[in-house]
């Protein structure tokens, strides 16, 4: 995993990081879809497949199934330094959270609708929660869907920023 650590240096020029990003933006859209992001994480940053899958879900904070350059740059400059995959206990917790999330993401769009959230909350024992109000509370991006990142902030199984 050491291959990509130089990109995390706060002195790494933005143009170098942009070059890395553009290398994987095959469509030229200015964003990386999950396949492109997973390729970048595995090929240039040295992630294993399961690690890349977890991080691609975490980095997609708004659940739009793409990562902008600004989101990617902010993560690289955040000082996070692979924290979640270097701590095996945290990584296993994240894997369980991904499995839980995917179980209730029945339309496989990497977000939860209000109905999907209700099923997830019921499974966790929150049967009396006002789902509509709770959904609005969790939906920080106010886009009508709950991303994995938004759910993780609430679950607080690991600290996400």
UniProtKB/TrEMBL annotation:
Signal sequence range: none
Alphabetized PROSITE patterns for the sequence: EF_HAND_1, EF_HAND_2
Keyword line: Calcium, Repeat
Any single Gene Ontology cellular-component annotation: myosin II complex
Matches recorded under Pfam families: EF-hand_7 (PF13499)
EF-hand domain location: 12-47, 58-82, 99-127, 130-161
Annotated GO MF terms: calcium ion binding
Designated name of the protein: Calcium-binding protein CML19
């Amino acid at each position: 995993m050491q291959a990509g650590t130089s990109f995390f240096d706060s002195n790494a020029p933005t143009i170098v990081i942009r070059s890395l990003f553009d290398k994987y933006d095959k469509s030229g859209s200015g964003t990386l879809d999950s396949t492109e992001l997973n390729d970048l994480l595995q090929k240039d940053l040295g992630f294993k497949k399961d690690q890349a899958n977890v991080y691609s879900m975490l980095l997609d904070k708004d659940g739009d199934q793409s990562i902008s350059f600004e989101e990617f740059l902010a993560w690289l400059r955040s000082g996070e330094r692979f924290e979640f995959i270097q701590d095996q206990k945290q990584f296993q917790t994240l894997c369980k959270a991904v499995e839980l999330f995917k179980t209730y993401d029945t339309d496989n769009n990497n977000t939860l609708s209000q109905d999907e959230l209700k099923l997830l909350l019921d499974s966790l024992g929150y049967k009396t929660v006002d789902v509509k109000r709770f959904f609005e509370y969790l939906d920080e991006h106010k886009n009508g869907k709950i991303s994995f990142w938004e759910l993780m902030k609430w679950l607080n199984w690991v600290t996400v920023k």
